[in-house]
Amino acid sequence: MNDKAIVCACEDVSVRDVEDAIAHGFGDIESLKRYTGLGTGPCQGKSCESGAMRICEARKAVPPEAQVPFRARPPFVPTQLSAFAGLELPATGYRLPATRLRPTWGTGPHPLQPKTRLPEKVDVVIVGGGIMGLALAWNLAGQGPQKILVLERGYLCEGASGRNGGGVRAQWTTPLLIELAKESIDFMGRFAQELGINVWLRKGGYLFLAHDDDTVRRIEYGAELQKRYGLPTRVITPGEAGEIVPELDVSRFIAASWNPEDGVVFPWPFLWGYADGARKRGAQVETFTRVTGIDVSGGRVRGVQTDRGRVAADRVVIACGAWSPTVARLAGVALPNVPYRHEIVSSEPLKPFLGPLVSMLGTGLYFSQSMRGEIVGGMGDPDEEPGLNQTSSLRFMTRYARALTELLPVVGKVKLLRQWAGCYDFTPDRSPILGETPGVSGLLQMSGFVGHGFMMAPAVGRRMAAWMAGGQDEIFEKYGLRRFADGRLIQETFIIG
Ligand SMILES: Cc1cc2nc3c(=O)[nH]c(=O)nc-3n(C[C@H](O)[C@H](O)[C@H](O)COP(=O)(O)OP(=O)(O)OC[C@H]3O[C@@H](n4cnc5c(N)ncnc54)[C@H](O)[C@@H]3O)c2cc1C
After folding, report:
1. Best residue among 136, 138, 323 to mutate for probing ligand 1, ranked by most atoms within 8 Å of CB
2. Burial of 42 by CB count in 10 Å (0-12 exposed, 13-18 middle, 19+ buried)?
3. CA–CA distance from 33 to each of 17, 370, 371 (Å)?
4. In the chain, N or C terminus with fewer CB closer than 10 Å?
């Protein structure tokens, strides 16, 4: 077949693009979709999926048992926001039966699991190939010779890092978070030079809308603090906000906080870039490899058990996002993190019209326009029950569509294309857990980033690697697991969504 032949007409993906993805190790259907864009357009793979699978089959990239369809994303056919906004609000609590979500290949190892042997011993095992684990791996590998092994149970992008909204902001309300976010956003601007892949950083600003006096006081406090740390944040009137986004219904809020230097990124290339970069520096990143046990004896970690055998290590980092408590339990450690589903949706692509990411404080609605033109947005649900639930709900679509069309009426006729969900990784004080586990030396924690881990990861990964090399850093004391037992909870994190 001609390598210029189009496989996915919606997203203009050619045979060569598919072959390129396979050559990069992204032959499984979920990675192929993300790496090429295939199946992310209006037809959601209905016209291209079988063609793509045939190419994978011909290249022997995917064994027959792994030739499964994409995970179908509601609403299945492009549907106008106004159609959802007009629905009666469905109750919370409905979940797909767990059996519907079981892997198609059964209970054994993933059919795409590499057949090679894992090393018997390494210096550091990082469990979890999300943004945290990979940012850490790349930074550690840059320190010089040491054996670093990242173990990811699925494809890269399987966890929250592959499911998030890509919002990056320095508008935080504590000096430390401002500092971490500033460093991360600076690094995002250099990501392509450092790691050779475009992450589509678009600095369109962040516009936080306040609908009551309490929230106005919070944004005023935040803006003052941010100014002291060198940010150009200003509290502006609804009229001024309306000049930035003329389509907003400015009667719905009374003030806004505006930092034109915040922005949005395209999350997936971060994971591919960090993984490739870490590999180039000598680290091993193994996908479709699940950690099934953590060996602890004499008060220290000794290694991990996996579905590909045992690996000895003096240091094991748990960077499993919302799954961190499950993995920590393998070492007999109880983490206080609680997962909550967070839903998100993408529209059909539109001509560029929306500069900033807009967030309505109070309702938790947020939305921005991606570089592909889609309106990508989400909204937390105060009635969400805790759990590792990544299903999609009609309730979310109804709440989101109502909130969005009230604030931005012009989008009522815009069609929604794809809805998905990930898990926020909540700790009791909504702040991360970093550093050594009390009572188990060598077992390190790196989780609890709620809904903002992506934008913190470049700085957190660098600082964690420097601290592991012996550097002093206050954040590993401040955010240590011990604070929960000592009752030293952090009171200050400002969450959206
Ligand atoms: C819908 C949504 C929107 C969000 N929006 C934003 C945003 O706009 N900006 C922002 O900064 N943040 C956002 N976040 C939060 C952000 O995505 C997370 O904080 C961040 O991705 C966490 O990264 P992580 O590496 O800790 O976890 P993850 O990305 O979840 O990675 C953990 C990995 O561990 C793996 N794993 C689990 N168990 C095992 C095991 N036993 N063996 C091996 N591997 C295992 C999982 O498969 C997973 O890939 C959002 C999150 C969601 C869900």
Report:
1. 323
2. middle
3. 11, 17, 17
4. N
Q: Is the CB of 453 under 6 A from ligand 1?
A: yes
Cα separations (Å) of 39 from 48, 76, 87, 333, 349? 7, 12, 28, 41, 14
CATH fold, domain 1-71, is: Arc Repressor Mutant, subunit A (1.10.10)
Distance CA 201, CA 473 (A): 29
* pLDDT, position 99: 46
Please work out whether the CB of residue 129 comes within 6 Å of at least one atom of ligand 1.
yes
pLDDT at 92: 76
The pTM score is: 0.95
Torsion of CA 359, 361, 363, 367, to 10 degrees: 0
Q: What long-range pairs does 223-229 form, CB within 8 A, spacing at least 24?
A: 223/257, 225/173, 225/174, 225/175, 225/178, 226/170, 226/171, 226/172, 226/178, 226/259, 229/175, 229/178, 229/179, 229/182
Q: Can you tell me which residue has the tokens 């029950």?
A: 385
pLDDT of residue 339: 97
Kindly give the distance from the C-alpha atom of residue 449 to the centroid of ligand 1, in angstroms, as a whole number: 8
User: Which positions of the chain have pLDDT values less than 70?
Assistant: 1, 93-106, 492-497
Beta strand 263-264 with 167-168: parallel, antiparallel or unpaired?
A: antiparallel
Atom of ligand 1 minimally distant from the CA of 342: 1
Q: What is the pLDDT of residue 103?
A: 60
